[in-house]
Amino acid sequence: MTSATADHGTGETAAWRDGKRYAWLLGLVVPAIPFLAWGLVSATGLGAFWWLGPVIVFVLIPLIDVAVGTDAENPPDELIEWLEQDRYYRWVTYLYLPIQYAGLVLACWLWTTYPMTLVDRVGLAVSVGVVAGIGINTAHELGHKKEKHERWLSRVALAQSCYGHFFIEHNRGHHVRVATPEDPASSRFGETFWGFLPRSVVGSLTSAWSLEKARLARQNKSPWTLRNDVLNAWAMSGVLFAGLTVAFGPAVLPYLAVQAVFGFSLLEVVNYLEHYGLLRQKTDSGRYERAAPRHSWNSNNVATNVFLYHLQRHSDHHANPTRRYQALRDFEQAPQLPAGYASMIVCAWIPPLWRKVMDRRVLAHYDGDVTLANIDPRNRGKVLARHGGVTEAPAASSAGSAGSAGSAVEGGAR
Amino acid sequence: MKIYRCEVCGFEYDESQGWPDEGIAPGTKWEDIPEDWCCPDCGAAKADFVMVEVSPA
Ligand SMILES: [Zn+2]
Questions:
Q1: What is the rounded CA–CA span in Å between residue A122 and residue A51?
Q2: Complex ipTM
Q3: Does A402 or A212 have the greater pLDDT score?
Q4: Which parts of the sequence are annotated with region: Disordered (chain A) (predicted)?
Q5: Which domain holds residue A287?
Q6: Does residue A156 form part of some domain?
Q7: Taking a C-beta distance cutoff of 8 angstroms, is the pair A124, A30 a contact?
């Protein structure tokens, strides 16, 4: 350890060097997207470049993932503490915020003064939404830290997407109920992204509110106070949007709404693929077994990992939630996605494709026993019919007639 | 007797109560809990707990 600290500040020791140390700076390309889009449109005259945000995240990053591949490199255990102490890494995440908000102000200026068609303006709003959404990932990294100022920065990053309640619900709600039917942010086997989206948005909101209400009640306080972290986080969004409206006029409001909705929907689709179908079993005492590496989907695709601060090393994140991104490790035995999160997001938007790619992976994870998965109760009959389980025999007999299969199995499931 | 709180989810381990669910007897000192024990609620590592107060009991 002493030899490691002697080299502090260079990201390497005689024995090990962090291959991704400078790659983390690439994450700052994302908040710069509005600037890049503006520059490219000015240089080429092509309005299509206002859509640069979705093109980078859903086309370019998946392609780079394929080209660059995966990396399962882990820092040696004895160097993790040292790696976490290196302040360079946290500054890379802090820097996201000023660029994010400079880009938002730029976009407001462009929406109101730059010659653009309606499609151009929507394109820019979606690009800004990409910045807001990946900003939630930055907020996620910061919101897990013990340092007060980092938790505060987390709320600042969330103001743009009006998702300030996320850092409450995520830590005290999602991390407790992960991979259980009670968690609004864990998706279920047989549940499409479009069914998950409203359930998670509403469920996370009510969860955050009740967590804060309960905390304040323990101090004999009403929830209607700015000490309520849900309310003061939303107040930040209110101040931000009001300020932008005063500065640029109410014409920016519809675009601000589009970017916020796109932003939090991007977070929700990432939520969707992190724990799809995975379930913690109940122990004899009636509690759920502890969250373990087998309850999260992981990926070692380098490009997505660099842009998402190792979020895809999700099992280690749940085991060590306050551990800084640069020190998160790959678990060999943890469930692996077939591609990086960026590609899987596109897959999640298309439910038949998602089912084709993921359902057999969930089944393989449970050695073919679908009853061990977190099954969507609304589709339980259908899922059991298709994938066996307790109704295997009757389901097989009715498999030929698709029309009657649904109702026949509905009865069988109960 | 001390109380330790999970920094992630707020779960509290009270030394005077122990955690009988898993055979940790009342009165078990924090130092005597195995290093690989983790938060029963959220699975966070033992290192993510901080001492919060001395329990009255
Ligand atoms: Zn916990």
A1: 8
A2: 0.78
A3: A212
A4: 391-414
A5: 16-397
A6: yes
A7: no
